[in-house]
Design goal:
Length: 381
């Protein structure tokens, strides 16, 4: 074992008492392991669900989006893993369900984290391009998820419009990236959860060709607009909204249209218009870029309309590298999505409020993407 010179460190810890900034023991590392110092990490929608008890993930310390710096490398680690090297962790191992960073193993919202040898051997630790601004680090993993979605969608997309459900960070990233991947000729219908989200999008000038509210879907008819019926739908919603959005997508997209399930699913997942389709299996069959070509469900609605459905979770290393390349080249395009940056202490207070169903606001301003500075004394940009 390598002796660590760090006996304890600060971490945002979940417990029955709430969310607190606590002092925890700093682990020692062994052969093939890494001790990392997270620099900047992001709070995502899934994290908020965990905080509110809507998921049963058991990690005491959450957080799976961000960049860290190597503090110590155990013997047997690759030579390029030297102290000071910046890395990110692919949070999902498609071949090992026992590793899901920030979900079933402790995550990045702490000053130091041990990365086991199995994660390094699986190639899930990725060096970071040094020119990537650290303030954009919280966007790498969610943007990678959108690259994954569009990689699967592009060969299947039909028509001159698409509909994006969900105005969280993934929905906004999808809106921005769709303009690049599909071109401006494809009109985008953007569905928001609440008026607050719609107002934020319009204020930031990140909005669709047509913006809708979730509660307007039941009365929405595409034929009453000047837009063509969508040929594809991307569902990037919290799990409690996914099925309602899926039902709407199935009704409104064109025959042979494509529906991508990027959002989470409730434990009981079915919709009346798609009887017999196992949605949970559909979402889990594509994981972390495996299989590379993707698995799709060619199905029919109860009204006999042919559709193509696909689901996926996690991302591959290639998706993460794509996201880093895009953010490095066009960071100014995405920067406004980082609405707030807090230190660990203030982030713990905000997360505790969220765990008690407090508003997703700081100083009366909507939190789109929260970045958390963790080891600011190590930062160089």
């Amino acid at each position: 074992m390598l002796d660590s010179s760090f006996n304890s460190h600060h971490a945002i810890v979940r417990s029955s008492m709430g969310i607190r900034l606590s002092q925890v023991e700093t682990p020692m590392i062994g052969a093939g392991e890494l001790l990392l110092a997270p620099l900047v990490a992001g709070l995502c929608g899934t994290d908020i669900q965990i905080l509110r008890g809507e998921r049963n993930d058991n990690a005491r310390v959450i957080g799976h989006e961000g960049v860290a710096e190597i503090v110590q490398a155990g013997s047997g680690c690759p030579d390029y893993f030297t102290p000071g090297t910046r890395v990110l962790i692919n949070p999902t191992n498609p071949h090992d369900s026992q590793f899901l960073l920030g979900h079933n193993v402790d995550g990045l919202f702490q000053e130091y984290i041990r990365i086991p040898a199995s994660v390094i051997a699986a190639g899930l630790v990725i060096p970071v391009v040094q020119t990537l601004p650290l303030t954009l680090a919280p966007l790498i993993e969610p943007l990678a998820a959108v690259f994954y979605a569009f990689q699967l969608m592009q060969p299947q997309h039909r028509g001159e419009s698409m509909i994006i459900y969900g105005d969280g960070i993934v929905g906004h990233l999808a809106l921005l990236l769709a303009r690049i991947c599909f071109g401006k000729r494809v009109a985008i219908i953007f569905v928001h959860h609440h008026q607050e989200g719609l107002n934020w999008s319009r204020t930031q000038k990140i909005h669709g060709d047509l913006d809708l509210l979730f509660n307007e879907l039941s009365s929405f008819h595409i034929e009453h607009t000047n837009l063509p019926a969508p040929g594809s739908a991307l569902i990037a919603t919290p799990r409690h909204s996914t099925l309602a959005c899926l039902s709407h997508a199935v009704d409104c997209i064109t025959p042979h249209g494509y529906v991508d399930l990027l959002g989470g699913l409730p434990e009981v997942a079915s919709v009346p218009s798609l009887p017999g389709l196992n949605l949970s299996k559909l979402r889990s069959v594509n994981c972390g870029g495996v299989p590379a070509q993707g698995v799709f469900a060619n199905t029919y609605t109860i009204q006999n309309k042919p559709l193509i459905l696909c689901g996926h979770r996690g991302v591959s290393n290639d998706h993460l590298l794509q996201a880093m390349t895009e953010l490095t080249a066009n960071g100014i395009f995405y920067q406004k999505l980082i609405s707030h940056i807090l230190d660990l202490k203030d982030a713990a207070r905000f997360m505790d409020d969220l765990s008690k169903n407090g508003p997703r606001q700081i100083n009366s301003q909507r939190v789109m993407k929260l970045g958390i500075r963790i080891n600011s004394h190590l930062k160089r940009n």
